[in-house]
Write a structure and sequence with these properties.
Elements (H helix, E strand, L loop, with lengths): L2 H24 L3 H6 L6 H27 L6 H16 L1 H11 L4 H9 L1 H33 L5 H51 L2 H5 L14 H11 L2 H4 L1 H9 L3 H36 L4 H5 L6 H9 L4 H32 L8 H20 L5 H25 L5 H21 L10 H21 L1
Helix pairs in contact: 1-8, 1-16, 3-7, 3-8, 3-13, 3-16, 4-10, 4-13, 5-13, 6-7, 7-8, 7-15, 7-16, 7-17, 7-18, 7-19, 8-13, 8-16, 8-17, 10-18, 13-15, 16-17, 18-19, 18-20, 19-20
Length: 468
């Protein structure tokens, strides 16, 4: 990488760290740190939500899907659009009102309000584990990006570099630093990919008509996807909008329920079609770049599908543009990693250990963020696939947490026993299937039977309780 490109990336990282220090001085308590004094508006929230949900993992993962599947890989974010809009209509009005009235700051606190302490503690553990894994996936995405574009930096070294920046910046700044920088980061990402990445890639390939010669007919069709894949994505991604700690923090941080609902509508549209097609299209261009020889075979032999797009950008972008596009991707990665770290930190410090009543609560939370970040870095060192780790983390949280959320939305008196039974059954089923490597029929993921069993138990126990 040329020194000009490297300078752009370094300056960007320095700015992010300075923002973290700035907001570190502005945070007076956990209300500031976790929910930004509840004064956030729709555009900051909307862009922060989509930056967090899509982020570096999905950006790199979408490129990998485009490289393998073509246009049909975009369907993965159509589920994000459905989830965002469903949440805006069904969940936000109730959750925001309850959160404001009771001073809630985290997802398990809404479960404690509806079910009691035991359910909240179980939710805190499930959510913290899931978000630690999700943070690791973002660190790994950044590592793959770094390794593909910086000569002499391997993935383990890149994991340590990316992880250190994300952890320190988040531990210092809190939710205000996260939300405000997410807005800027998402603008950088969207404009960088669409206005710089795509045009230069097409120019190097000789235009779209020339690029299509290197792509199969199936890659140009939206129907090039299995029904089982769509089912897996539906079960993993739509429910995350109902149980994501990062999303509840933003609901609680919203100035009003109306602002939160508008933010979620904005986020859904940016996910699909904007980011969905942009991400897979770049992956398709990377496929054409490899087939045409722009990406040397020797480099691709040492990489994987998710590394193809960064490799292409390294070879097609001129000096200065490469630095800008790398800053765009690092923006996406940080925007997700910081939010996930915040979520896991809140789960453990506030919900599990109840440090919100401590005089030094803010310092405890910041140190907790640092510790969780270190653990996430350790996980990232041992997992090969960004998208696989993301979907596994999603599946673990969804299997254990979706049923109790539907319980308090559907029933006037939701059953604590039903919530606990569904959480244990869902999480345990997913873990057993993953650990044993049991292959399900029709190529279904473990989240499908795990979530189905969890929902069934929630309904049965709830109905039995009403009869007693």
């Amino acid at each position: 990488m040329h020194w000009i490109d490297l300078s752009i990336v370094v300056v960007y990282f320095a700015i992010m760290l300075l923002i973290g220090f700035w907001f570190h001085r502005k945070n007076n308590n956990t209300e500031d740190y976790f929910v930004g004094s509840r004064q956030m508006t729709k555009w900051h929230l909307g862009l922060s939500v989509v930056a967090t949900d899509v982020g570096g993992g999905f950006s790199i993962g979408l490129g990998g899907l485009g490289f393998v599947m073509g246009l049909a890989g975009s369907w993965i974010l159509f589920t994000g659009l459905i989830g965002a809009w469903l949440t805006a209509v069904v969940l936000i009005p109730k959750v925001h009102k309850t959160g404001l009235a009771n001073g809630l700051q985290t997802f398990p606190e809404i479960l404690k309000h509806n079910y009691g302490k035991t359910v909240a503690l179980a939710a805190a553990i499930i959510s913290a584990i899931g978000y630690m894994g999700f943070t690791a996936s973002q660190v790994l995405a950044g590592a793959k990006l770094t390794s593909a574009t910086f000569v002499g930096v391997n993935i383990p070294e890149a994991v340590l570099i990316m992880g250190a920046i994300a952890v320190v910046y988040t531990a210092l700044g809190g939710i205000k630093a996260v939300i405000y920088t997410d807005t800027v980061q998402w603008i950088i990402l969207l404009s960088g990919l669409s206005l710089v990445g795509v045009p230069y890639a097409l120019k190097a390939l000789g235009g779209w008509e020339a690029a299509k010669l290197f792509l199969s007919a199936e890659m140009l069709q939206l129907s090039n996807v299995k029904i089982s894949t769509l089912i897996n994505w539906t079960f993993s991604i739509i429910p995350i909008w109902f149980i994501g700690m990062t999303l509840y923090q933003r609901i609680f941080a919203a100035k009003s329920a109306k602002e939160a609902k508008r933010a979620w509508f904005i986020a859904g549209l940016f996910e699909y079609p904007f980011m969905a097609f942009l991400g897979v299209f770049l992956g398709m261009l990377a496929k054409a770049a490899f087939a045409s020889g722009i990406i040397p075979a020797a480099e691709m032999a040492m990489a994987d599908n998710e590394s193809a797009m960064p490799l292409m950008l390294k070879h097609v972008l001129p000096i200065g543009a490469l630095g800008l596009i790398m800053a765009a991707y690092f923006s996406a990665i940080l925007s997700t990693a910081d939010s996930c770290l915040m979520a896991a930190s809140g789960n453990i410090s506030r919900d599990l250990f109840n440090y919100k009543k401590s005089k030094n609560a803010l310092k405890v939370v910041q140190w907790m963020t640092l510790i969780i970040g270190i653990l996430a870095i350790a996980v990232a060192l041992y997992v090969p696939s960004v998208l696989e780790l993301m979907l596994l983390s999603y599946g673990f949280m969804v299997s254990g947490l979706m049923a109790p959320v539907l319980g308090f939305l559907l029933f006037k008196k939701p059953s604590r026993k039903a919530a606990i039974a569904s959480m244990i059954a869902g999480s345990a089923t997913l873990l057993v299937l993953q650990i044993t490597g049991f292959r399900l029929p029709w190529e279904l993921d473990a989240v499908v039977p795990a979530l189905s069993l969890s929902l069934l138990l929630m309904l049965l126990v709830q109905m039995m309780g009403q009869k007693d």
